[in-house]
Amino acid sequence: MTDTRRRVKVYTLNEDRQWDDRGTGHVSSGYVERLKGMSLLVRAESDGSLLLESKINPNTAYQKQQDTLIVWSEAENYDLALSFQEKAGCDEIWEKICQVQGKDPSVDITQDLVDESEEERFDDMSSPGLELPSCELSRLEEIAELVASSLPSPLRREKLALALENEGYIKKLLELFHVCEDLENIEGLHHLYEIIKGIFLLNRTALFEVMFSEECIMDVIGCLEYDPALSQPRKHREFLTKTAKFKEVIPISDPELKQKIHQTYRVQYIQDMVLPTPSVFEENMLSTLHSFIFFNKVEIVGMLQEDEKFLTDLFAQLTDEVNFLKEFCAFSQTLQPQNRDAFFKTLSNMGILPALEVILGMDDTQVRSAATDIFSYLVEYNPSMVREFVMQEAQQNDDVSKKLTEQKITSKDILLINLIIEHMICDTDPELGGAVQLMGLLRTLVDPENMLATANKTEKTEFLGFFYKHCMHVLTAPLLANTTEDKPSKDDFQTAQLLALVLELLTFCVEHHTYHIKNYIINKDILRRVLVLMASKHAFLALCALRFKRKIIGLKDEFYNRYIMKSFLFEPVVKAFLNNGSRYNLMNSAIIEMFEFIRVEDIKSLTAHVIENYWKALEDVDYVQTFKGLKLRFEQQRERQDNPKLDSMRSILRNHRYRRDARTLEDEEEMWFNTDEDDMEDGEAVVSPSDKTKNDDDIMDPISKFMERKKLKESEEKEVLLKTNLSGRQSPSFKLSLSSGTKTNLTSQASATNLPGSPGSPGSPGSPGSPGSVPKNTSQTAAITTKGGLVGLVDYPDDDEDDDEDEDKEDTLPLAKKAKFDS
Question: What is the CATH architecture of 7-101?
Answer without folding.
Answer: Roll (2.30)
